[in-house]
Amino acid sequence: MKNFLLFIAILVTNSIFACGFYPFGEDIRYSFLSPANFNYYSYSEFNYSFNTFYPNPDGVYPKGAIDENEKLWVKYCNNKVSVDAIRNVLYSFNEEDINEKSSNEFLRYFYKTKNSEAINYLKFAKTCEFFNDMYEDPWERKEGASIPKRKELIDKAIFNSNKTKNKILKSRYTFLAIRLAYYNNDFDQIKSLFDTVFKSQKKDILYYWSLYFRTFAEKDKVLSNFYAAQVFVNAPDKRFMIAQQFDSKISLDAVLKYAKNNEERANVYFLAGIKKSDQALYSLEQVYKYNPKFEGLSFLLLREINKIEDWVFTPYYSLFNPSVSKYSYWEEEDKDNSIKDILNRVENDRAYASRVLQFVNKVKFKKISDPVLWKIGKAYLSFVTQNNQSCLNEIASLEKNISEKDTIYDQIQIIKALALTANQESTKAVILDEVKPILLKNQKNKKFLFAIGRELEYKKNRTDAAFLYSKLNHDNTEYVGTYDLSTVVWKTLKNKRSSYRDFYTDYFDYVDVMYTPEDVQEIVVKIEDQDNNLDSFSKWKQSYIKTQVPRLYDLIGTKYIRQNNLELAAEYFGKLDKDKLANYSDCLWEKLNCEVVDMFDANPFFVLKYTPEFINQDKNFKLNKRSIIEHLISYLKKANDVKEENKDYYYFLVANAYYNMTQNGNSWMMRRYYWHHYTDDAPFEDEREFYESNLAQKYYLLALKNAKTDQFKALCLRMIGRCEKNKLEYQNPNNYDSTIENYDDFLLSKNKYYQDLKSNYADDYEILMSSCSSFEGYFKSRR
């Protein structure tokens, strides 16, 4: 039943998120100080991440490491048996495999020394293995067929423990009894056994394994917290589960009353610090005070720096909130999440980083277990607090004592590259020669590439930033642990409000929004001015974007359309013929029997979307951006000619073209590369025009001004009113609803042009508003 309910919960959750994707978690988190580069594998389940704490499927000991239990057995065998032989018996053998005929070195040692007590213990332990688990009753009767057998084994383990004189075997039998009692839900038995056998014994791994179960049996939450802290530090394979038993709401002062020495005090502060998702500097200070040699102190510093990275660099580079919020979901809902406020919070977190750096500066490195980590932390925190030169000075000192073959060396090179780039003067920043090999070596680390690009962009070097951004989605990628190096998503400083479309994953989409036409021209010039003798870095940097030159010319032209700079738009669309990169010359101008092709739905001058064709086109021409813009320039020239007799006709065609270049038209691709139905204030410079149809309205008004007949004037007012309707929808997204019952009343009250049409051309109003098929007759009545 419980599993079924869990399945339903998962199904519902997946259904919710199947509706759409929005970046979160490790996709957005920035981390340049990787725990994988440091020797804290046994704490890896508690590395800082969006996933909070997660069990390590590969265990908490690195490959080839000897755990504490294996060390006990090696010592028990007087160091005469290999760990592999011990491991094979412990994890691979059945009870039947433990016999005199075995060739296993571990078993051979016991048979040779006639240690029947050890052999009997191993056989008994194998008998218990099946019962060391929870067995759920699908009917939830809380009954288990194995309970009597488990009780029998508990009694036998206690009997054997009392019988044997060997202290190690006595502890092992007692531990088996305690573990079986836990799965038998007999907490009183756990307390009795632990207090009788272990309380006065040496604290080895058997002691802490038993204390693990004793913690779950303790009803006093304060004492349970104390036990949990001691188990957490001393039993790596129990850390994940025991950490969940530690209640952070309980007063640390109360817990510390049970501590008998400084080491135990440090353990309490350590687990309390691990459990904190917010600032844990106080825990760091107290662990250092009571046990500076403790390796957990260094891990706690690493975890704190990883937090600070998320709080500072995730917003600073991507403009997203940190992956792990310091607020609850409901508190976050009440926060102002504008880009300005997100960056203001970054400054507060840089100030906290400065406090952590002050603590690191006070630490005596000779007292601690991992001075290299602390020195790297000192350098990195200097970078976080924007003291770039101090960071570089610390790294220069570190480089003298670390081999280039060491993974730590690569780690500090990443920090060095960031500091070198950020340390440059605005408007003069470049990709420094010292940074280039670091970028090449770490090119699969997309977040690192983006961060360097972002630093350059912030320093006004948009060209090199674009080159680096172009490398994000088109090369090999990789993961490090659970941290995703391959996914880069980011927002823009122009974002007005949050929406499901407010982020970018591709350089072109970002350049499309953020770069001026002149910025894009600089990118193209940089490519075209290079000779063929490029160095390896330049070849790598340009390898993808060099293939994009035609697309960039098209983008420049499109950007000039957004600025309504038609002459320059035509110039750059014309460049697409250069070197036959794209052929726009075929059938460019008006010719008979010219096929209408390319991406356009219909001719923007003569056809309106969702409207029957009502304007005759005697000659067709191939539709593409260049031909449409050159026709638009030509028609505008004719319309503005004082001698032109058909000014109303050409103004109407021009207005049609501008209307069709909006979201509601058949040629929206003149201004955009993607169409969508949202109106969420994307930061394009012509966003209002794209939704409001202001230019179309302007030229329909000029057509009206030059119209000669009432019927054509009525048609012009109908189209002017349509533009006004688009404007009203855009300006009143929450109030305007075309499906409301009093739609006509709304139009009359808000749309002044529909009011004029109804007032001045009452007979035509009903015809034009009820059916677009009437447009043809009204247009033909122009003369």
Short description:
The protein is an all-alpha fold and 783 residues long. It is 56% helix and 1% strand.
Helix content: 55-70%
Shape: elongated
Structural class: mainly alpha
Distance between the termini: 80 Å
Low-confidence region ranges: 1-19, 136-146, 328-334, 477-483
Major beta-sheet overview: 2 strands, antiparallel
Q: What is the averaged pLDDT score?
A: 88
* β-strand number: 2
The strand order across the widest sheet is 1-2
Radius of gyration: 37 Å
- Count of runs of 4 or more consecutive helical residues: 37
Please indicate the percent range of residues in DSSP E strands (runs of 2 or more): under 5%
Protein name: Tetratricopeptide repeat protein
Can you put this structure into words, describing what you see?
- The structure is a single chain.
- This protein has a two-stranded antiparallel ribbon with strand order 1-2.
- It is elongated and about 120 Å long.
- It contains 37 helices and two strands.
- Among the domains are: 1-52 and 277-384, no CATH class; 459-577, no CATH class; 586-780, no CATH class.
- Mean pLDDT is 88; it is low at 1-19, 136-146, 328-334 and 477-483.
- By secondary structure, the protein is mostly helical.
- Helix 7 packs antiparallel against helix 8 (187-198), helix 18 (371-384) packs antiparallel against helix 19 and helix 20 (407-422) packs parallel to helix 22 (446-458).
- A hairpin with a 2-residue loop joins strand 1 (479-480) and strand 2 (483-484).
- The chain has helices spanning 2-17, 68-76, 83-92, 105-112, 116-128, 147-163, 167-183, 187-198, 205-217, 221-234, 239-245, 252-256, 262-274, 281-290, 295-318, 329-334, 339-362, 371-384, 388-399, 407-422, 436-441, 446-458, 462-469, 507-514, 517-528, 536-542, 549-562, 566-574, 625-640, 647-660, 687-692, 694-706, 710-731, 743-750, 752-760, 762-770, 775-780, and strands at 479-480, 483-484.
- The longest helix has 24 residues, at 295-318.
- This is Tetratricopeptide repeat protein.
- It comes from Flavobacterium gyeonganense.
